[in-house]
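User: Please predict the structure of the protein below. I'd like the answer in C-alpha coordinate form so I can feed it into my own downstream comparison script.

Assistant: Understood. Taking the following sequence of 379 residues as input:
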Amino acid sequence: MLNSCTDRTVPPGVRDGSSLPCSDWSRCGRFIIRSLSRFVYGIGCVLLLGACGRSVDHASIESIIGETMGTTYQVKYVAGSGPGAPERSSLQAGITAILQAIDRQMSTYREDSELSRFNASRSTKWFPVSRDLATVLATATSISRRSGGAFDVTVKPLVDLWGFGSGPPQPPMVPKADSLAAARARVGFQHLSVRAAPPAIRKQIPGLEIDLGAIAPGFAVDKIAGFLSDHGVQSYLVELGGEVYARGHRPDGRGWQIGIERPTDAGTEVDISLELDGKGLSVSGSYRNYFEHHGIRYSHEIDPSTGAPVRHRTVAVAVVAGNAAEADAWSTALLVLGSERGAALAERAGIAARFADIGEQGIEIGATPAFLALQGSSR
Protein backbone atom coordinates (compact mmCIF):
# COMPACT_ATOMS: atom_id res chain seq x y z
CA MET A 1 0.00 0.00 0.00
CA LEU A 2 1.00 3.60 -0.53
CA ASN A 3 2.23 5.15 2.71
CA SER A 4 1.11 8.73 3.23
CA CYS A 5 1.27 11.68 5.56
CA THR A 6 -0.03 15.25 5.41
CA ASP A 7 2.13 18.29 4.67
CA ARG A 8 0.71 21.81 4.47
CA THR A 9 3.39 23.11 2.14
CA VAL A 10 4.09 22.94 -1.57
CA PRO A 11 5.22 19.45 -2.69
CA PRO A 12 8.93 18.75 -3.06
CA GLY A 13 10.93 18.71 -6.25
CA VAL A 14 8.36 20.16 -8.65
CA ARG A 15 9.74 20.72 -12.11
CA ASP A 16 6.86 22.37 -13.98
CA GLY A 17 3.19 22.39 -14.98
CA SER A 18 -0.33 22.99 -13.61
CA SER A 19 -3.45 20.87 -13.51
CA LEU A 20 -5.93 20.99 -10.67
CA PRO A 21 -9.72 21.31 -10.51
CA CYS A 22 -10.76 24.94 -10.16
CA SER A 23 -12.08 24.35 -6.64
CA ASP A 24 -8.67 23.15 -5.48
CA TRP A 25 -6.93 26.14 -7.00
CA SER A 26 -9.38 28.57 -5.44
CA ARG A 27 -8.50 27.03 -2.09
CA CYS A 28 -4.75 26.62 -2.27
CA GLY A 29 -3.43 28.14 -5.50
CA ARG A 30 -2.40 31.44 -3.94
CA PHE A 31 0.16 29.85 -1.63
CA ILE A 32 1.56 27.63 -4.37
CA ILE A 33 2.08 30.54 -6.76
CA ARG A 34 3.64 32.72 -4.07
CA SER A 35 6.06 30.00 -3.01
CA LEU A 36 6.99 28.71 -6.46
CA SER A 37 9.77 31.18 -7.20
CA ARG A 38 11.57 30.02 -4.05
CA PHE A 39 10.88 26.42 -4.83
CA VAL A 40 11.63 25.47 -8.40
CA TYR A 41 15.39 25.85 -8.08
CA GLY A 42 15.51 23.79 -4.91
CA ILE A 43 17.03 20.68 -6.44
CA GLY A 44 20.08 22.53 -7.76
CA CYS A 45 20.68 24.36 -4.48
CA VAL A 46 20.49 21.18 -2.44
CA LEU A 47 22.83 19.41 -4.82
CA LEU A 48 25.45 22.01 -4.01
CA LEU A 49 24.94 21.35 -0.32
CA GLY A 50 25.20 17.63 -0.91
CA ALA A 51 28.48 18.07 -2.73
CA CYS A 52 30.01 20.58 -0.35
CA GLY A 53 28.74 19.61 3.08
CA ARG A 54 30.75 19.67 6.28
CA SER A 55 33.92 17.61 6.62
CA VAL A 56 34.57 17.66 2.87
CA ASP A 57 37.93 18.57 1.44
CA HIS A 58 36.71 21.24 -1.00
CA ALA A 59 39.93 21.10 -3.02
CA SER A 60 39.21 17.45 -3.86
CA ILE A 61 35.90 18.20 -5.59
CA GLU A 62 35.89 19.75 -9.05
CA SER A 63 32.86 21.39 -10.69
CA ILE A 64 31.85 21.77 -14.32
CA ILE A 65 28.83 23.97 -14.96
CA GLY A 66 27.17 25.03 -18.20
CA GLU A 67 23.98 25.49 -20.21
CA THR A 68 22.28 23.12 -22.64
CA MET A 69 18.80 22.18 -23.91
CA GLY A 70 17.38 25.46 -22.63
CA THR A 71 18.45 24.67 -19.07
CA THR A 72 21.61 24.29 -16.97
CA TYR A 73 23.80 21.38 -15.97
CA GLN A 74 26.41 20.78 -13.31
CA VAL A 75 28.90 18.01 -12.77
CA LYS A 76 30.74 17.53 -9.49
CA TYR A 77 33.41 14.88 -9.17
CA VAL A 78 36.19 13.81 -6.85
CA ALA A 79 39.38 14.75 -8.62
CA GLY A 80 42.07 12.10 -8.88
CA SER A 81 45.79 12.52 -8.44
CA GLY A 82 48.79 11.17 -10.23
CA PRO A 83 49.80 11.04 -13.90
CA GLY A 84 46.71 9.06 -14.99
CA ALA A 85 44.12 11.44 -13.58
CA PRO A 86 41.99 13.15 -16.26
CA GLU A 87 42.38 16.88 -16.74
CA ARG A 88 39.36 19.03 -15.97
CA SER A 89 39.64 20.68 -19.38
CA SER A 90 39.47 17.34 -21.20
CA LEU A 91 36.45 16.26 -19.18
CA GLN A 92 34.68 19.54 -19.89
CA ALA A 93 35.40 19.22 -23.61
CA GLY A 94 34.05 15.68 -23.63
CA ILE A 95 30.87 16.69 -21.78
CA THR A 96 30.30 19.57 -24.20
CA ALA A 97 30.70 17.20 -27.16
CA ILE A 98 28.16 14.77 -25.68
CA LEU A 99 25.56 17.49 -25.15
CA GLN A 100 26.08 18.94 -28.60
CA ALA A 101 25.63 15.51 -30.17
CA ILE A 102 22.40 14.88 -28.26
CA ASP A 103 21.11 18.27 -29.34
CA ARG A 104 21.81 17.38 -32.98
CA GLN A 105 20.03 14.07 -32.53
CA MET A 106 17.01 14.78 -30.33
CA SER A 107 16.12 18.47 -30.36
CA THR A 108 12.67 19.51 -31.59
CA TYR A 109 13.82 23.15 -31.75
CA ARG A 110 16.43 22.49 -34.44
CA GLU A 111 15.02 21.83 -37.89
CA ASP A 112 18.20 19.95 -38.85
CA SER A 113 18.17 17.50 -35.92
CA GLU A 114 17.56 13.82 -36.62
CA LEU A 115 14.30 13.93 -34.70
CA SER A 116 12.98 17.05 -36.43
CA ARG A 117 13.73 15.57 -39.85
CA PHE A 118 11.91 12.37 -38.88
CA ASN A 119 8.95 14.35 -37.61
CA ALA A 120 8.78 16.38 -40.82
CA SER A 121 8.87 13.27 -43.00
CA ARG A 122 5.60 11.63 -44.02
CA SER A 123 7.30 8.46 -45.20
CA THR A 124 6.49 5.19 -43.48
CA LYS A 125 9.78 3.60 -44.54
CA TRP A 126 12.70 2.95 -42.20
CA PHE A 127 14.48 6.19 -41.27
CA PRO A 128 18.20 5.77 -40.38
CA VAL A 129 19.16 7.37 -37.05
CA SER A 130 22.07 7.43 -34.64
CA ARG A 131 22.53 4.60 -32.17
CA ASP A 132 21.77 6.97 -29.29
CA LEU A 133 18.41 8.04 -30.71
CA ALA A 134 17.44 4.42 -31.36
CA THR A 135 18.46 3.53 -27.79
CA VAL A 136 16.37 6.32 -26.27
CA LEU A 137 13.33 5.35 -28.34
CA ALA A 138 13.72 1.68 -27.45
CA THR A 139 13.70 2.62 -23.76
CA ALA A 140 10.74 4.94 -24.31
CA THR A 141 8.61 2.32 -26.07
CA SER A 142 9.42 -0.24 -23.38
CA ILE A 143 8.20 2.12 -20.64
CA SER A 144 5.18 3.00 -22.77
CA ARG A 145 4.18 -0.67 -22.81
CA ARG A 146 4.87 -1.17 -19.11
CA SER A 147 2.91 1.95 -18.16
CA GLY A 148 -0.08 1.10 -20.34
CA GLY A 149 0.61 4.08 -22.59
CA ALA A 150 0.78 6.69 -19.81
CA PHE A 151 4.26 7.50 -21.10
CA ASP A 152 4.16 8.12 -24.83
CA VAL A 153 6.76 10.11 -26.78
CA THR A 154 4.42 10.30 -29.79
CA VAL A 155 2.20 12.73 -27.88
CA LYS A 156 3.79 15.70 -29.66
CA PRO A 157 0.74 16.56 -31.85
CA LEU A 158 -1.35 16.92 -28.70
CA VAL A 159 1.31 18.92 -26.86
CA ASP A 160 1.50 21.28 -29.84
CA LEU A 161 -2.30 21.53 -30.12
CA TRP A 162 -2.63 22.59 -26.49
CA GLY A 163 0.07 25.25 -26.99
CA PHE A 164 2.91 23.63 -25.03
CA GLY A 165 5.07 22.50 -27.95
CA SER A 166 8.22 23.74 -29.63
CA GLY A 167 6.46 25.56 -32.46
CA PRO A 168 5.77 29.30 -32.75
CA PRO A 169 3.92 30.68 -29.70
CA GLN A 170 0.15 30.74 -30.12
CA PRO A 171 -2.62 32.15 -27.97
CA PRO A 172 -3.53 29.41 -25.50
CA MET A 173 -6.98 27.94 -25.94
CA VAL A 174 -8.90 24.74 -25.35
CA PRO A 175 -8.91 22.83 -28.65
CA LYS A 176 -12.16 22.14 -30.46
CA ALA A 177 -13.39 18.57 -30.50
CA ASP A 178 -12.60 17.98 -34.16
CA SER A 179 -9.05 19.32 -33.81
CA LEU A 180 -8.51 17.17 -30.74
CA ALA A 181 -9.77 14.07 -32.53
CA ALA A 182 -7.49 14.75 -35.49
CA ALA A 183 -4.44 15.13 -33.24
CA ARG A 184 -5.28 12.00 -31.25
CA ALA A 185 -5.40 10.02 -34.48
CA ARG A 186 -1.70 10.83 -34.98
CA VAL A 187 -0.65 9.62 -31.52
CA GLY A 188 0.23 6.15 -30.29
CA PHE A 189 3.54 4.51 -29.38
CA GLN A 190 2.30 1.30 -31.01
CA HIS A 191 2.63 3.10 -34.36
CA LEU A 192 6.39 3.55 -33.85
CA SER A 193 8.94 0.84 -34.68
CA VAL A 194 12.57 0.88 -33.51
CA ARG A 195 15.41 -1.15 -34.98
CA ALA A 196 18.76 -1.56 -33.25
CA ALA A 197 20.94 -2.79 -36.13
CA PRO A 198 21.35 -0.91 -38.26
CA PRO A 199 19.73 1.78 -36.07
CA ALA A 200 16.54 3.10 -37.61
CA ILE A 201 12.98 4.07 -36.73
CA ARG A 202 9.75 3.88 -38.67
CA LYS A 203 6.32 5.45 -38.34
CA GLN A 204 3.29 3.43 -39.35
CA ILE A 205 1.12 6.51 -39.77
CA PRO A 206 2.47 9.50 -41.75
CA GLY A 207 1.51 12.15 -39.21
CA LEU A 208 3.22 10.59 -36.21
CA GLU A 209 5.68 12.92 -34.43
CA ILE A 210 7.96 12.48 -31.41
CA ASP A 211 8.91 14.69 -28.48
CA LEU A 212 11.67 13.41 -26.18
CA GLY A 213 11.43 16.16 -23.56
CA ALA A 214 10.50 13.64 -20.86
CA ILE A 215 13.44 11.27 -21.40
CA ALA A 216 16.25 12.97 -23.35
CA PRO A 217 17.51 15.07 -20.38
CA GLY A 218 17.81 11.93 -18.28
CA PHE A 219 19.58 10.15 -21.12
CA ALA A 220 22.03 13.07 -21.37
CA VAL A 221 22.79 12.70 -17.67
CA ASP A 222 23.45 8.99 -18.16
CA LYS A 223 25.75 9.65 -21.13
CA ILE A 224 27.80 12.10 -19.10
CA ALA A 225 27.96 9.63 -16.21
CA GLY A 226 29.19 6.89 -18.55
CA PHE A 227 31.79 9.21 -20.00
CA LEU A 228 33.12 10.07 -16.54
CA SER A 229 33.34 6.39 -15.57
CA ASP A 230 35.09 5.53 -18.83
CA HIS A 231 37.70 8.20 -18.10
CA GLY A 232 38.56 6.95 -14.66
CA VAL A 233 36.34 9.20 -12.54
CA GLN A 234 34.99 6.94 -9.80
CA SER A 235 32.89 9.34 -7.77
CA TYR A 236 30.66 12.00 -9.27
CA LEU A 237 27.28 13.68 -9.34
CA VAL A 238 25.62 14.85 -12.57
CA GLU A 239 22.54 17.11 -12.73
CA LEU A 240 20.83 18.48 -15.83
CA GLY A 241 17.53 20.34 -15.66
CA GLY A 242 16.66 18.60 -12.39
CA GLU A 243 17.57 15.07 -13.57
CA VAL A 244 20.26 13.57 -11.34
CA TYR A 245 22.67 10.64 -11.30
CA ALA A 246 25.31 9.99 -8.65
CA ARG A 247 27.97 7.35 -8.08
CA GLY A 248 30.62 6.72 -5.47
CA HIS A 249 31.46 8.74 -2.38
CA ARG A 250 32.76 12.13 -1.43
CA PRO A 251 36.27 12.56 0.02
CA ASP A 252 34.94 12.17 3.58
CA GLY A 253 33.62 8.70 2.73
CA ARG A 254 29.97 9.70 2.77
CA GLY A 255 27.68 9.23 -0.21
CA TRP A 256 26.27 12.00 -2.36
CA GLN A 257 23.30 13.36 -0.44
CA ILE A 258 20.52 14.63 -2.70
CA GLY A 259 18.03 16.81 -0.89
CA ILE A 260 14.57 17.71 -2.14
CA GLU A 261 13.56 21.11 -0.79
CA ARG A 262 10.21 22.51 0.20
CA PRO A 263 9.34 26.13 0.98
CA THR A 264 7.94 27.18 4.33
CA ASP A 265 6.64 30.48 5.64
CA ALA A 266 10.09 31.09 7.11
CA GLY A 267 12.02 30.27 3.95
CA THR A 268 13.05 26.84 2.69
CA GLU A 269 14.07 23.57 4.26
CA VAL A 270 15.06 20.14 3.05
CA ASP A 271 11.99 17.94 2.99
CA ILE A 272 13.86 14.67 2.52
CA SER A 273 17.44 13.67 1.81
CA LEU A 274 18.45 10.66 -0.26
CA GLU A 275 21.86 9.10 -0.70
CA LEU A 276 22.36 8.07 -4.31
CA ASP A 277 25.03 5.66 -5.46
CA GLY A 278 24.62 4.22 -8.93
CA LYS A 279 21.07 5.55 -9.25
CA GLY A 280 19.18 8.32 -11.01
CA LEU A 281 16.53 10.66 -9.60
CA SER A 282 13.83 12.61 -11.41
CA VAL A 283 10.96 14.75 -10.16
CA SER A 284 8.05 15.72 -12.41
CA GLY A 285 5.39 18.26 -11.47
CA SER A 286 2.17 19.52 -13.01
CA TYR A 287 1.46 23.06 -11.89
CA ARG A 288 3.94 25.54 -13.27
CA ASN A 289 3.57 25.42 -17.06
CA TYR A 290 -0.12 26.06 -17.74
CA PHE A 291 -2.76 28.40 -19.08
CA GLU A 292 -6.17 29.38 -17.74
CA HIS A 293 -9.50 29.25 -19.57
CA HIS A 294 -12.79 30.13 -17.91
CA GLY A 295 -11.26 29.73 -14.48
CA ILE A 296 -9.72 26.30 -15.16
CA ARG A 297 -5.99 25.70 -15.35
CA TYR A 298 -4.72 23.41 -18.08
CA SER A 299 -1.33 21.78 -17.56
CA HIS A 300 1.35 20.90 -20.07
CA GLU A 301 1.21 17.31 -18.79
CA ILE A 302 -0.97 15.57 -21.39
CA ASP A 303 -2.71 12.25 -20.76
CA PRO A 304 -2.35 10.30 -24.03
CA SER A 305 -5.51 8.30 -23.26
CA THR A 306 -7.71 11.40 -23.23
CA GLY A 307 -5.69 13.83 -25.34
CA ALA A 308 -6.14 16.44 -22.60
CA PRO A 309 -4.14 17.70 -19.60
CA VAL A 310 -4.22 15.58 -16.47
CA ARG A 311 -7.04 16.47 -14.07
CA HIS A 312 -6.30 14.64 -10.82
CA ARG A 313 -4.94 15.78 -7.47
CA THR A 314 -1.36 14.55 -7.93
CA VAL A 315 0.97 17.50 -8.47
CA ALA A 316 4.43 15.96 -8.18
CA VAL A 317 6.11 12.57 -8.50
CA ALA A 318 9.71 11.69 -7.63
CA VAL A 319 11.26 8.49 -8.95
CA VAL A 320 14.60 6.83 -8.22
CA ALA A 321 15.76 4.25 -10.78
CA GLY A 322 18.90 2.53 -12.00
CA ASN A 323 19.56 5.34 -14.45
CA ALA A 324 18.35 8.88 -15.00
CA ALA A 325 16.58 8.20 -18.31
CA GLU A 326 14.26 5.63 -16.75
CA ALA A 327 13.68 7.83 -13.71
CA ASP A 328 12.83 10.71 -16.06
CA ALA A 329 10.32 8.68 -18.07
CA TRP A 330 8.73 6.95 -15.10
CA SER A 331 8.22 10.18 -13.16
CA THR A 332 6.23 11.47 -16.15
CA ALA A 333 4.26 8.23 -16.55
CA LEU A 334 3.31 8.10 -12.88
CA LEU A 335 2.36 11.77 -12.87
CA VAL A 336 0.02 11.15 -15.81
CA LEU A 337 -1.55 8.21 -13.97
CA GLY A 338 -1.86 10.03 -10.64
CA SER A 339 -1.20 8.54 -7.23
CA GLU A 340 -4.17 6.16 -7.15
CA ARG A 341 -3.31 4.26 -10.32
CA GLY A 342 0.37 5.21 -10.40
CA ALA A 343 1.20 3.97 -6.92
CA ALA A 344 -0.39 0.59 -7.63
CA LEU A 345 1.65 0.23 -10.82
CA ALA A 346 4.85 1.41 -9.12
CA GLU A 347 4.43 -1.07 -6.28
CA ARG A 348 3.79 -3.98 -8.65
CA ALA A 349 6.87 -3.03 -10.69
CA GLY A 350 9.07 -2.37 -7.64
CA ILE A 351 9.57 1.29 -8.60
CA ALA A 352 10.79 3.71 -5.94
CA ALA A 353 8.26 6.55 -6.25
CA ARG A 354 7.00 9.40 -4.08
CA PHE A 355 3.71 11.20 -4.78
CA ALA A 356 2.50 14.62 -3.66
CA ASP A 357 -1.26 15.20 -3.81
CA ILE A 358 -3.50 18.14 -3.00
CA GLY A 359 -5.60 16.99 -0.03
CA GLU A 360 -8.28 18.47 2.17
CA GLN A 361 -5.73 19.63 4.76
CA GLY A 362 -2.89 20.55 2.40
CA ILE A 363 -0.28 18.48 0.62
CA GLU A 364 -0.43 14.73 1.21
CA ILE A 365 2.82 12.83 0.67
CA GLY A 366 2.83 9.12 -0.16
CA ALA A 367 5.65 6.77 -1.09
CA THR A 368 6.02 3.21 -2.30
CA PRO A 369 7.87 0.69 -0.13
CA ALA A 370 10.86 0.82 -2.49
CA PHE A 371 11.15 4.58 -2.03
CA LEU A 372 10.75 4.34 1.75
CA ALA A 373 13.54 1.76 1.82
CA LEU A 374 15.86 4.19 0.00
CA GLN A 375 14.85 6.99 2.32
CA GLY A 376 15.48 4.80 5.36
CA SER A 377 18.91 3.70 4.17
CA SER A 378 19.90 7.35 3.64
CA ARG A 379 19.48 8.26 7.29
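That's the full C-alpha coordinate string. The first helix runs from residue 22 to 39.
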